[in-house]
């Protein structure tokens, strides 16, 4: 198990600050249901790095956390007394310090292509957050669902092989997965998206994306580290009620 | 002169597509007044790369341009039949293919620090675009000016030396400069920002930023390649009238 402490309770305001991570080790400040933090989690898992995970309560952030991330967001990677932030930069940092097993390709054009792909698929993230607004205002759901389907459709057209990285997943695959997974989560809510969670998003309408999603969830670095769906649904339920429970399922 | 064709008329819908840039050469699709494109321009100038600049009319984009950038935005770098987009990715690509004179530091933490700094200073960009909205709606000006001053103040606190890169400009310096320069441009409009263009933004209120701006404009890769202020003001005038003239000053 490379991700130690993944399913531990979130630290909140008033909780003591953990002592500094020992030199040479990695610590990742996380929130168990945050797709941005999951990008970094999956990347370290793929690289097989031993990481201590410290979960943060984003509704009652510990005061000391702002010394690690100026906005108090997750993820933050602690390494040798330094802090690296941003879900797209932590993976690049990890590849820079451990280049022998770089997930990003060595070829400069293939490298930048992965980064561009990961920016293009952010349309799914925006559309997902838009759809979540329908929890509070059901009147916007159809419009937001339309935006989501467009984003999925645009993403469908980006595939040239099973993965964005080709025959193996690369940077864009790990950075995109958490947002598609979030759509899969909310698709478990009866009648919310209309997607079938067992044929997701839909082999007929999105053949590449469906094959990709199935391939991704079957990979050990993903299957071992994603939140169990019951935890995710318990979190969504608390979120819908306006009091997100960052310890849902524990 | 490394930037060939910088002050040439913008190509627009109906204009023929330029023939492919010869193998081994660089072409940059640009708009003379676009701060995002200027990031790439200054980076290639700093690296001393010979680049052919092709300007694009963003109000009447040539049809063929969408084959080079899927959204039709600038900048786009053409190199060996491939296209690299995004103002923060083109510099990284250039450093990846020409690592011997990498502007980004080699040390992984210093590298990511430059990227994080360039994201933090984007607050100036957002505030600048907010302020520009006051051209059409003067009632929002004071609020937007307040946002801009906050962004400049936050940036002021990021300096540890003359440049973001230390004693020499680095990635974050070239990526930030165009937006501060745009604030300097609009400060030439009587009574608009209240900043003094000869003591900009203000030695007393922003000592680091003022020293940095003066140091940046004195560097040859910048002084030789930025738009003359008369061209910039002619462009702003056309923009205010609702008909941006991308050939202003030519």
TrEMBL record, chains A, B:
| InterPro entries the UniProt entry points to | Glutathione-S-Trfase_C-like, Glutathione-S-Trfase_C_sf, Glutathione_S-Trfase, Glutathione_S-Trfase_N, GST_C, GST_omega, GST_Omega/HSP26, Thioredoxin-like_sf
Top-level lineage group? Eukaryota
GO MF terms listed in the record are: glutathione dehydrogenase (ascorbate) activity; glutathione transferase activity; methylarsonate reductase activity
Keyword Metal-binding part of the UniProt annotation:
no
Q: What is the reaction catalyzed?
A: RX + glutathione = an S-substituted glutathione + a halide anion + H(+); methylarsonate + 2 glutathione + H(+) = methylarsonous acid + glutathione disulfide + H2O; L-dehydroascorbate + 2 glutathione = glutathione disulfide + L-ascorbate
Transferase listed as a keyword: yes
Gene3D superfamilies, per the entry = 1.20.1050.10, Glutaredoxin
Keyword annotations for this protein, in alphabetical order, are: Oxidoreductase, Transferase
Give the E.C. number(s). Answer: 1.20.4.2, 1.8.5.1, 2.5.1.18
Residue spans crossing the bilayer: none
Q: Outline the extent of the GST N-terminal domain.
A: 22-102
Which GO cellular component does the record give, naming just one?
A: cytoplasm
The family assignment reads:
Belongs to the GST superfamily. Omega family.
**Protein's name according to its UniProt entry:** Glutathione-dependent dehydroascorbate reductase
